[in-house]
Specification:
single chain, 76 residues, mainly alpha, 4 helices, extended
Length: 76
């Protein structure tokens, strides 16, 4: 039997992209900053910065399959 977390994860993955992004953002915002280590805080800041760059059109996303293809080409 699936755990509640697994059920929530499955339901979240079934959401449209925009709703998944909003949910992810809400979850990140809900993290208690006081319980995070300094490194966790830095990574959280970095994730938010990158998110904002995508939202603001500063960077363009690349599908995972395409990114992997490019990496494989570079290392071969």
């Amino acid at each position: 039997m699936a755990t509640i977390l697994e059920q929530i994860t499955e339901a979240a993955r079934a959401l449209p992209v925009v709703d998944r992004a909003r949910l992810a953002d809400d979850l990140v915002q809900s993290l208690d900053g006081e319980s995070l280590t300094e490194i966790d805080k830095l990574w959280l800041d970095e994730a938010k910065r990158r998110r904002d760059e995508v939202r603001d059109g500063i960077v363009e996303t690349v599908p995972g399959i395409e990114a992997l293809r490019r990496v494989r080409e570079m290392i071969s």
